[in-house]
Specification:
Radius of gyration: 18 Å
Order of helices and strands: EHEHEHEHEHEHHEHH
CATH topology: Rossmann fold
Structural class: alpha/beta
Bound molecules: NADP nicotinamide-adenine-dinucleotide phosphate
Number of domains: 1
Strand content: 5-15%
CATH superfamily: NAD(P)-binding Rossmann-like Domain
Shape: globular
Amino acid sequence: MPARGATDDERDPNVNDRRFARALVTGASSGIGAAIAAELAARGTDLVLVARNEEKLQTLATELSAEHGIAVEVLPTDLTETGALRAVEERLRGTEAPVDLLVNNAGVGQVGRFEELDIDVAETQIALNVLAPLRLTHAALPNLRQAGGGVLNVSSIGANQPVPRMATYAATKAMLTSWTEALHEEMRGTPVHITVLAPGFTRTGFVGAAEAEGAAGHIPSFIWSDAAAVARAGVDGVTARRAVVTPGPIYRLSGAVSSATPSNVTRRVIGTVMRFTGD
Ligand SMILES: NC(=O)c1ccc[n+]([C@@H]2O[C@H](COP(=O)([O-])OP(=O)(O)OC[C@H]3O[C@@H](n4cnc5c(N)ncnc54)[C@H](OP(=O)(O)O)[C@@H]3O)[C@@H](O)[C@H]2O)c1
């Protein structure tokens, strides 16, 4: 279900900015997730870092606790494995050192024509990009409801329209954006802040992988965002209880154009652009 034209909203003047005490950040071992962890650490928020690569998580934990004097826990986890995901859910339900901000950032993007892609990898992509945020948010909500807190879901501008050659990825992000916006409304009037962050092209390992497959090599340099700026926009957004945050004027403009353009036009234009990335 494409969340066409998800647009940034004004901040709600009736909502006070919130300082978070402890955040659990998924996909914290690199890229936007590591940048979000650093941004939160600089604001004095304790952290629980989640990803598969334990060594990278430990290195980041040591750096951030030394630099900012915060407490950092490390939970090495493959979020596509049911048992491991349940353990993170349990951490979010815990009342000792409770988490008051969940950042669902871990995500992968498979590039190529769907018929040629490994279907098991496509399924794993859905598990990581959609099912993990769904289950983790459900586990976090009782504590957030009771004591107040937030959820920041990292989606993509790819959510705004179908993306040929990244069809399943864009569909996972369309669900994440639509679902987060709906939850944002369900939580109106409660102490729970729910925000979707929709970055455009951002220099990280994610794009490194896509570049290696030819998907990003044709993009001009001014289009690229910096992970630290994206992270700052996301943390500011959930602090101020915005529903949708799209970092960068270029991407806010492209979102507006995309929502005003018939879908048969946008999908053909993007299909043509993406054709340069493959065969
Ligand atoms: N970069 C962009 O241009 C861009 C644009 C729009 C949206 N986004 C979104 O931003 C988010 C972060 O992407 P990024 O660009 O920062 O990519 P990245 O540098 O590749 O980081 C992805 C993170 O996800 C973790 N991860 C991957 N598979 C996992 C698994 N099975 N279980 C647990 N963690 C897993 C990785 O850590 P381990 O390998 O250690 O597990 C890593 O920390 C994603 O949701 C992506 O869709 C990125």
